[in-house]
Amino acid sequence: QVQPVESGGGSVQAGESLTLSCEVSGFTYSSRYMGWFRQAPEKEREGVAAANRDGYSAFYAESVEGRFTISRDVVKNTVYLQMNSLKPEDTAMYYCAAGPWPERLWDGGYWGQGTQVTVSS
Known about the structure:
single chain; mainly beta; seven-stranded mixed beta sheet; 0% helix
């Protein structure tokens, strides 16, 4: 059983930073990519960033590239998302996930309960 558990999140002002963490217990071949996707009210689900099992980044959404950094502690089975220069449009529920497709971790993957990120202008 693969189970991601997120921590972090919160409310910040535009331009500030936040770090999300996620520990993923269990492993299957279908959970070889770990990362984050987000969903805001009335918007489509969006892949944010993902890293492969060795910790190398596999995907960044164009909307976050250059501002967000994903990293992975392979020993701890933990993935981190450092979010800098946050914008109001980054406001969403962020889900940690492990899945077979880095751009669409929710597709055939496993995800946690989510953590809210709110950025005010």
